[in-house]
Write a structure and sequence with these properties.
The protein has 668 residues and is mostly helical. It contains 31 helices and no strands.
């Protein structure tokens, strides 16, 4: 009973500490690729019958079907409520911390220590609050990290239980199958856990001081799962995430140098988590300098020293444990060290979220060291107090550093401002900060950020595109046109660029060129209702009413509640004398958007043209209430009132129209 109470209090301490660390981010906004992953992802809005496509016909850049399925469920639960997504990430992270604590209890027991020592609990706490984990937990799109880790830890716990079972015909050893199933689940969440079978071999060596055939046989099905889904991931990376892009990571000498630097980087950030950034400066490794290979010399020397002094007995000692922890750390880093090209390497060789799973090896080592020190100093009052103070102080530093770093993830502006303070040459940070500023209307500041991003990467079509949007919003249409044309030269098959270029050309009165761009955008994205609508508007302005009607009808087919398309279709139908059909379209526009002054105005005109004057007046009056500053609506209302003899009201509307126009009332 006393042990159960102690474990309950320890578990509560991990959970409460984790919640406090991440509290600043729990109400955080969408960040970076959260929009494409969740907020604007059409896959998540599909009915349950479409889940099969997530698994068997995915359209994304990666094949993580279980992660996408969970995101689908989240969208149907939370919708736009970001708190739900943040709370899910945090719950998964804290579950991993508790499972890691349990795993360490089993490993400590195998090493000859009692399960109830301080070390395992410290491991769970360190993982729960360490600032290096913040990016994975506070960033909604990194659900793949937090979702993959609980099943991975359950797989390891199951394998340890399997390894402890006595083999024989009367012992079917079900834990191996369960462990394999959990590993498959983890791989379907995120395939960067692909090195788990290697970790199993390290575990076998750590446990017994050697590897036997039984270890190889037991790990074989894990290697099969790892190889199969790993190859699928590589296909998606090369054919979708990277495509034909040049990542500028260089050949093998550059990759080897970068891998050594990355290992040292993650070690340093775990030990001293200061200066954490959303995007770290990009290392220049083409070609690498001799000094950039020095980390490998240090790594080789440390491992050789530990290997030469490793424990030879059946029971693992601290040197073998140190090698095991470091090997787990290094093995789990292999997929993200740059040996295999990844799209993210274009931005930086390192990222905090790459270390989420690998840091478990280091957290376990830190916990083991702290736990052993605490146990040995327990009966020595002076030393015991010092060790306790050091452990408490270290945990407090991690706690406050994690809380502070989580506050960076409140919104895009705080995130990218922090990135630029530590990495002012990050074109991505400038571009994203520009987008963050563009939203609230700080257009001038946004333009400055886009221009700086363009200075750093002049050949990125996205930056040209974003700058064009901001310039257009600022009324600098000629400059915006230049940016859209530059973006189009770099990415001629991007329908968004052609669409916005078409809008800018249309605004400049170059209707024929605008129509051509809209048509080309439709060739590239034939199911975009917005492009059909804009093409219809351009065709209508050019006098091609019949063609405009076709485009509006197609926009409505694709998006039935498209109020603006119903309104414009009604206007086009009126031009061809089809007033009854036009009235129906205006009414549908108002059902889709009840507060719509233009549709009320157009409905009033169409009703008046068919002799339904009383109804026309009601509609025009509603339009005037919705848009009291529109002189034309007041004039049309005055004419309608005059037509049925309501002269005093008509006179008042004529006077209001004249006042708004700034001239005398028309003579009647």
């Amino acid at each position: 009973m006393k042990a159960r109470l102690r474990w309950t209090l320890q578990a509560a301490a991990i959970v409460l500490a984790g919640v406090w660390v991440y509290a600043p981010a729990l109400r955080g906004d969408w960040l970076w690729d959260d929009a494409t992953e969740v907020a604007h992802n059409p896959v998540l809005r599909e009915p349950a019958s479409a889940i099969g496509r997530i698994w068997f016909a995915p359209a994304g850049k990666d094949y993580f079907p279980l992660k996408t399925t969970v995101q689908w469920a989240e969208w149907h639960l939370w919708g736009e409520n970001r708190f739900g997504y943040h709370a899910t990430n945090l719950a998964l992270h804290l579950s991993s911390a508790l499972l890691f604590w349990r795993l360490l209890r089993e490993l400590f027991a195998l090493a000859g220590g009692p399960r109830g020592t301080l070390g395992p609990w410290l491991g769970g706490l360190i993982f729960a609050i360490h600032p290096l984990a913040v990016e994975s937990v506070a960033w909604i799109a990194e659900l793949k990290n937090t979702l993959s880790l609980p099943p991975l830890l359950l797989a390891m716990i199951g394998y340890v239980a399997f390894d402890a079972e006595a083999p024989g015909p009367s012992h079917p050893r079900p834990h191996l199958s369960l462990s394999l199933a959990w590993f498959l689940v983890a791989m379907l969440c995120k395939s960067s856990v692909v090195m788990f079978p290697v970790v199993l071999l390290f575990y076998g060596w750590w446990r017994r001081g050697r590897l036997g055939r039984a270890d190889l046989r037991a790990s074989a099905p894990f290697f099969a799962v790892s190889l199969g889904l790993g190859l699928v991931t590589l296909w998606f990376q090369f054919h979708r995430a990277i495509g034909g892009a040049d990542l500028a990571i260089g050949g093998w000498p550059s990759r080897i140098a970068g891998a050594g630097l990355a290992i040292f980087f993650y070690l340093g950030k775990f030990v001293w988590p200061v200066g954490l950034l959303p995007i770290y400066p990009l290392w220049h490794l083409r070609p690498p300098s001799p000094g950039q290979f020095l980390p490998w010399i240090a790594i080789a020397a440390a491992l050789a020293w530990l290997w030469a002094r490793r424990d030879q007995g059946e029971s693992p000692g601290w040197k073998r444990t140190a090698l095991f922890g470091l090997a787990c750390f290094g093995a789990n880093l292999v997929p993200v060290l740059g040996f295999v090209p990844m799209a993210y390497l274009r931005l930086s060789w390192v990222a905090d979220h790459f270390a989420y799973v690998p840091m478990l090896g280091l957290a376990g080592l830190a916990a083991a060291g702290a736990g052993v020190a605490a146990d040995r100093a327990r009966n020595r009052p002076g030393l015991g107090g010092l060790v306790a103070a050091l452990i408490a102080g270290g945990c407090a530093l991690l706690l406050f550093a994690g809380h502070r770093h989580a506050s960076v993830f409140r919104n895009e502006e705080t995130l990218w401002s922090r990135a630029l303070r530590g990495n002012p040459d990050s074109w991505t940070a400038h571009d994203n900060l520009g987008l963050a500023l563009h939203g609230p209307g700080q257009t001038t500041a946004a333009i400055a950020q886009f221009q700086e991003a363009l200075r750093l990467t002049p050949d990125d079509p996205r930056v040209h595109f974003n700058l064009g949007l901001a310039l257009g919003e600022a009324g600098r249409n000629a400059a915006a046109l230049d940016q859209f044309e530059a973006a189009l030269r770099l990415a001629p098959d991007d329908p968004r660029i052609r669409f916005n270029l078409g809008l800018t050309l249309d605004g400049a009165g170059r209707s024929a060129e605008a129509i051509a761009q809209f048509q080309e955008a439709l060739r590239l994205a034939p199911d975009d209702a917005g492009v059909h609508f804009s093409l219809g508007a351009a065709l209508g302005a050019a006098g091609q009413t019949a063609e405009a009607i076709v485009q509006y009808q197609e926009a409505i087919r694709l998006k039935p509640e498209f109020a603006e398309a119903h309104n414009n279709l009604g206007v086009a139908l009126r031009r061809t004398g089809r007033n009854a059909e036009a009235i129906a379209q205006f009414q549908r526009a108002l059902r889709a958007r009840p507060v719509f002054a233009a549709a009320e105005d157009n409905l009033g005109l169409a009703l008046g043209a068919t002799g339904r004057i009383a109804e026309a007046i009601e509609s025009l009056q509603r339009a005037a209430r919705l848009d009291p500053g529109d002189a034309e609506i007041h004039y049309e209302l005055a004419v309608a009132l005059g037509a049925i003899g309501r002269k005093a009201e008509a006179e008042a509307e004529f006077e209001e129209a004249a006042r708004l126009r700034g001239g005398p009332a028309p003579s009647r």
